[in-house]
Specification:
The chain is built from nine helices and seven strands. The chain is α/β, with parallel strands linked by helices. A five-stranded mixed sheet has the order 4-3-5-6-7. The chain has a two-stranded antiparallel ribbon with strand order 1-2. Helix 7 links the parallel strand 5 and strand 6 (about 165-170). InterPro entries: DNA_Rcmb_RecR (IPR000093), Rcmb_RecR (IPR023627), Rcmb_RecR_Znf (IPR015967), TOPRIM_dom (IPR006171), TOPRIM_RecR (IPR034137).
């Protein structure tokens, strides 16, 4: 792809670094920005800079937040004894959109994947086990995607907390095997949360 401007080329190269964005799509986006009033581009750049420099991670659940504790963890109407284990903020948003879950979350920040060099030590698993060991949690709901990596992560955590005797469950398999939660429709995901099954039962399938 030949560019008439080095500035244009640099902008396209940076935008194309985003996941799912190729050079042609990046070019279309950059040209669109050039056609907009300058203040629109300033709003976008300022929003991205503020996000990068000011965003925090909730000290309790590890969700992305503007404050030390996220709005969900600060909400007195949520049940702190039921915790849903998810991979990242996209899963929190997907479950919240169903309005069927009133507990708290624990965001792992990924899944165990030896191929990608991600082990238990790279995830927020120790802090979860610590919560369970302190008796803060009565039920843990595994809501990771039904992939090999998701199932491996679920099982690893289950073995770490098994001795504490808390209730463990997993979302019902209304979500197709291999599907990511963020792509599930709200009705299916909501029913999967409400119709969750004991985790031990899922091991027999």
């Amino acid at each position: 792809m030949d560019f008439s401007s080095k500035l244009l080329e640099n902008a396209v190269n940076e935008v194309s670094r985003l996941p799912g964005i190729g050079k042609r799509t990046a070019l279309r986006l950059v040209l669109h920005l050039l056609k907009q009033p300058k203040e629109h581009t300033s709003y976008l750049s300022n929003a991205l800079l503020s996000l990068r420099n000011e965003v925090k991670t909730c000290e309790k659940c590890h969700n992305i937040s503007d404050t030390v504790l996220c709005d969900i963890c600060q909400n007195p109407k949520r049940n702190p004894e039921i915790v849903c284990v998810v991979e990242d903020i996209r899963d929190v948003m997907a479950i919240e959109s169903t309005a069927q879950f009133q507990g708290l979350y624990h965001v792992l920040g990924g899944k165990i994947s030896p191929i990608e060099g991600i082990g238990p030590q790279n995830l927020q698993i120790d802090s979860l086990v610590d919560k369970v060991s302190k008796g803060e949690i009565k039920e843990l709901i595994f809501a990771l995607s039904s992939t090999m990596e998701g199932d491996t992560t679920n099982f690893y955590i289950f073995k770490q907390i098994e001795k504490f005797g808390i209730t463990t469950s997993t979302i019902a398999r209304g979500i197709a095997v291999g599907d990511e939660l963020e792509y599930a429709d709200e009705v299916t995901l909501g029913r999967s949360i409400l119709n969750r099954i004991p985790f031990e039962n899922s091991l027999r399938n």
